Amino acid sequence: MTAMLEVKDLQVAYGAILAVKNVSLTVNQGEIVTLIGSNGAGKSTTLRTISGLLKPKAGTITFLGERIDGKEGHLIVQKGLCQSPEGRRIFPRMSVRENLELGAFLRNDKTVIAEDFEKVLELFPRLRERIEQKAGTMSGGEQQMLAVGRAMMGAPKLLLLDEPSMGLAPVLVDMIFETIVKIREQGITILLIEQNASAALDVADRAYVLESGTIKMSGKASDLAKDEAVTKAYLGG
C-alpha cells in the first residue's frame, strides 16, 4: 500500500512540557486510521502539528512524499490535507453557505468547487435546508456537519477529523460515523481522532492507541477492539 502520510519520531512541546513523545504513525491511501486515547493523551496536539498549526520540536512529517513539518498551514491545505477541528470552530455570524465557501478559499477551479459544494449538500441534506441560516444558530450536530463539510470544500486527499462526535447525542454520533464511511467511499483517506473509541474502531481499518504522548499499541482496528487492555481502558469493558 502507498503511504500517504508518514509521521516519524514526532515530538511536540508546550514550553518545557513534552506533550507528544516520539510518535510514529502511517496512513495509507484509501484507509480510515484512528488515533484513540483518553483526554490529554496528545491526540489533538499530534493532529494540529500534522496540519501545520503547531511546530514540532523534533521528528518528520511526510505527506505524499514531501516533508511538510514546520510548513505554514495554508500551504499544507493546498497540498490536499484538510482538517475539521476539535470544537467545530465554524464562523457563527456567517451563513452555512459562506462557511462552506470559505473552505474553498485556496481554490479557483470554479466548476469543480460548485460540484464539491453539491456533494457536501448531498452528504449532509440538513445543511441544504439551513443554507442561508447563520451557522451559530444551528444545533451542535448541524455545526459538526458544517465543520466536516467545510473541510471537504478544501478538496482533501487526506481529511483530518478531530473529535467529530464530541458532545453529540447518540443518534447523531451514529450519523456522523456513517458519513465518515461515505466520505471514504468518495476516495478520501481519513485520519480520525476520537474519544468514542468503540465507534472509531468500528469504522477504522487500523488504529493507534496514544497514552501520555506515546503510542502504546497499534494494529488492525478489529483486533484492537477485541484486545483486553483496550477494552478495559477505552471501551468500558
UniProtKB/TrEMBL annotation:
Transmembrane segments: none annotated. One of its GO terms (molecular function) is branched-chain amino acid transmembrane transporter activity. Residues 5-237 form the ABC transporter domain. PROSITE patterns: ABC_TRANSPORTER_1 (PS00211), ABC_TRANSPORTER_2 (PS50893). One of its GO terms (biological process) is L-amino acid transport. Belongs to the ABC transporter superfamily. This is Unannotated protein. It comes from freshwater metagenome.
